[in-house]
Design brief:
116 residues, mainly alpha, 3 helices, extended
C-alpha cells in the first residue's frame, strides 16, 4: 500500500474545525479516527488490506530477531513466535497440600404413583 502515511503512530491525521490536529486514536491499520471517516466501509477495507499486507514483513522481521546479537531480544522474539503458534510454556501451579471438595446436592423429587 504505497502512499499510506502512518508516521503519526496511530493518531488521527485529520484536523478539527478549529484547525488543530485531531488527537483521537486512528482506527487499526488506518490513518483517521472513527469520527473523521474511519467508520466508512472503504476506509475500513483499506485499513484491513494494509494490515494484511504487513503480516509477511512483520513475520520476516520477527524471524530475523531470533538471531539478534542481544540475547534478551532473541529470547523475546522466540517466545513470541512460540506463543503465536500455540506452543506455550507449562504453567506452574503451587499447592499447599489442602484439598477442596465441592458437593452439590440435587433434589430430584421422587414421583410416587398412587393406585386408584
Amino acid at each position: 500500500m504505497e502512499g499510506l502515511d502512518v508516521s503519526r503512530n496511530g493518531v488521527c491525521h485529520a484536523r478539527r474545525t478549529n484547525g488543530q490536529p485531531c488527537r483521537k486514536a486512528a482506527i487499526r491499520g488506518g490513518t483517521v479516527c472513527y469520527t473523521h471517516g474511519g467508520a466508512s466501509r472503504q476506509v475500513r477495507e483499506k485499513a484491513a488490506m494494509y494490515l494484511i499486507s504487513q503480516a509477511y514483513p512483520a513475520a520476516r522481521k520477527m524471524a530475523e530477531l531470533i538471531n539478534h546479537r542481544n540475547g534478551m531480544i532473541a529470547l523475546a522474539a522466540s517466545k513470541d513466535i512460540l506463543d503465536r503458534t500455540g506452543h506455550k510454556a507449562i504453567e506452574r501451579i503451587e499447592q499447599d497440600g489442602r484439598m477442596i471438595v465441592e458437593i452439590e446436592f440435587v433434589d430430584r423429587g421422587r414421583v410416587v404413583e398412587h393406585d386408584a
